[in-house]
Structures are given as structure tokens and as C-alpha cells.
Amino acid sequence: MGKLRQTALILGEGPTEFFYFKSLCDVFKRLTIKPDYPKHTNIKELEAKIAEGVEIGYNHIFCIIDMDTKDKEPEHSQYHKLKVKYAKPIDKPKKGIYCEVEFFETHRCTELFFLYYFRYTSRPYETQEPLLKDLNQCVEYQKTVEFFIKTKGPHSYFERNGGSLEKAVAHANRSIDEKQKSSRDYTYSELGRLIEKLGSI
What we know:
By secondary structure, the chain is an alpha/beta fold. The chain has 9 helices and 6 strands; from the N terminus they run E-H-E-H-E-H-E-E-H-H-H-H-H-E-H. Helix 8 (165-182) packs across helix 9. The two termini are 19 Å apart. The model has no long low-confidence stretch (mean pLDDT 93).
């Protein structure tokens, strides 16, 4: 009943994640990756997109979460509920559905993982601006759809300009190790784990 080909739906919270994961399709050729994002970045919309992906029949749904919008109420509680709801795989053999939903968090936002293509940091960022400034010291970057289209996708653009996905994964994993050892709750990214998971599917 189930499909032989592994399919992954990647849900980001906006165009940044959409264009980034679209630009990774060349790296993960064996995997059908479909990036998508809700039109409004709230938890309800994200939940609707997850439900839609489950019904369509994706094996994996990976949600990319920017934690800078999840540390205040009501988003904090809504997000926690959503994680609890999808803690176990969805298994409906009669409908031919088996889907694992996972959440991958970055604090403050996905741009930290982009910075990790070039260098490591554990510096606390109060807002996105200083983070974008640090990224711009490594490579020109604008958080706009026009920029993503012009550069033909963030991944290859970063690698053309001296960044490296391997480095980004190593730096992201280091940030998670440090977070766990020191219980810091800022400047970390679980996207390294996601990239490794995509590679192993």
C-alpha cells in the first residue's frame, strides 16, 4: 500500500525556509523534498499544513521553527501543544498513512544556520538585526524573495561564496551540544540534525 519512494514535506514559517530547502533539492536527489509554508505565520496555519501533508501521504513532515516568535504567549503554549500532538508517528494502515512529524528549532531564526556556513558563534542576539549584520560580514544577504531568486537559491550561493554545508552542520551540532551542557536557551540550531536526517532517509 505505502509508497516505495521516501517523501518529505518541509514546512518553514516563511519564504526564507522555502527557498533554502528548495535549493537543497540538488543535494538530496533520492528524496522528494517539497518545501512549503503557511501564508500567515501562526501555529493554527502550521497545524493545518501538517494535517494537509499527512492526508496527502508524506512519510516525513519536518517543521522548521524560528524560536524568536515562540518565547511569548500565546505562541509558546500553542507550539508546545502542537509538539505534544505529533510526538508519536501517525499510523493509519487502513488509509495507507504512516507519517512522522518532527520539529527542528533555531534561535533566533534560520539565518543563524546560514551564518554557520561561514563561522561559529554562541553570541546572544536580542533581535534579528545584529544576526543579519554578522551574516553580512561573511556574505551579502538580504531577507527578500527578490534576493533569493537573483542568487538562484541560498545553499549554492553560500557555497559559491566560501561557505560550506558540512561546516554549517558541524557548527549547528556544536551549538546543540553546548546548549545541552550549559542549559543556554539561545543561539542554537537543530537544522544540522535535520540535514543529517535528510541524508540518511
